[in-house]
Amino acid sequence: MQVAVCGDQIGWRTDVTRLLVFSTDAGFHFAGDGKLGGIVLPNDGKCHLENNMYTMSHYYDYPSIAHLVQKLSDNNIQTIFAVTEEFQPVYKELKNLIPKSAVGTLSANSSNVINLIIDAYNSLSSEVILENSKLPEGLTIAYTSLCKNGIVSEGENGRKCSNISIGDEVMFTIDVTATGCPKMGKPETIKIKPLGFNEEVEITLNFICECDCSSGGIADSDNCTLGNGTLECGACKCNPGRVGRNCECSSNEVATEDMDRTCRRDNSTDLCSNNGECVCGACECKKRDNADERYSGPFCECDNFNCDRSNSLLCGGNGLCICRECICKPNWKGSACDCSLDHSTCMASNKQICNGRGTCECGACKCTDPKFQGLTCETCPTCPGVCIEHKDCVQCRTFGTGEKAERCQEDCSEFSLVKVKDRGELPQPNDAAYPVMHCKERDANDCWFYYTYAVNNNTKEVHVVDKLECPTGPDIIPIVLGVVVGIVLIGLALLLIWKLLMVIHDRREFAKFEKEKLNAKWDTVSVWGFNKPLNNSGSKKLIW
Predict the structure, then answer these.
(1) How confident is the model at residue 384 (pLDDT cuts 50, 70, 90)?
(2) Per-residue model confidence as pLDDT tens digits over 293-329
(3) What residue stretches are annotated with the Integrin beta subunit tail domain (predicted)?
(4) By the 8 A CB rule, do 90 and 98 touch?
(5) Which CATH architecture does the domain made up of 309-340 adopt?
């Protein structure tokens, strides 16, 4: 709101396209949310910026969406919402409420913001939407657009044209209707402009509420039949004895007050159903530009071109449009004669209607058995035998092998083939809206291949993994290495066991020796020695 109304502080230039980029990773507040903080005063839609900061957040509530739309329109601002993917649905709903706005997905690091703005601007600049100022009481306005490629739209769609490029020309027709005169009959002004642009058209309406016409009128006017009246103030004033809008009737034929009454089906309907004119108490229906289209009926209440259509054909091309209702040809029924009563199109190859597994409705089979599909309920994609039936064709079209490899193109073109990288990419039963049969088959080389078979809208679809799973022979080197390593490990294990046993045996023997040593009894003999010469030299030896 502040960016929209604070033109001087923001620095909006005049006579330029104004883009407002709103970037966020969260939702938004609107009128009423301020009550949670005790703020009840409605937003005043005025500028309250000081030093680039909004100073009245504690005083005024958030603006309403309608209030914001008005301010954006008044200041010719087009909004681009650059938001994260999580909040895309919220801002797409907001976009529907704010004309001339766009929504783009902002990446996590905002690196795509420039491209996002460019794409959004291209989208905004390719659409023209007209809006008008508030209409005075008693006025209505209707738009009709002639857009690119001759597309004509009315009503709300008549306000806009899309997919416009530079150099394209579009045209808008605007009908202003006054249902009454304004107070005092003073002039009224309305403005019409395209959203997001400064250019506008200003229309001043002068109301003529009372006629100030010539009292004598224009005699013998062509508008008053055969000189039976004078044209005064745009209407015929009939001579005595003549009545009617153009004085075309004699009062002896029909009374004036009864003339319009006889041209209405009842008091609540329009004159001649608004499809003709009441002439002398009888309806004369309008002529159409297309000579084959015409109004009919005593009150022009019927026509032959407003019946239901099928395949862009009136009554499906199988009936006549009479008084806005299709009268169907034999073997056809329905509001648009689009339901055939012919059951030949439902006949299966076994001469049963819909193969006995469905009902024939409007010339087409409606299968009652969910396993069966196809035009005549003869296709069963999940029945046993489907995989074997299509094995050879899948093999030859995918790998160029199999029994039908030589005549693959001639015999195997009945289904569409889609190749995938692995089994995880194959359609799963819970992902598809139609039954899917998973198949696993083996070729002549004992290689397996995987595929799925399904029927989607009478079209056979096969998804196949483009790689075979073939058995592989034994790898000699790992086997030899394994045997050698095994022998070595066994030898080491035996050696360790032998060593362990020897250690245990030695410890037992040592323990036994120690025990016997402790149990041994020794005799101790004390010998007292004496000195005795050992030789002639006088040496002595002490002996115990």
Answers:
(1) low
(2) 899 888 898 998 889 988 888 898 888 898 989 999 8
(3) 387-475
(4) no
(5) Ribbon (2.10)
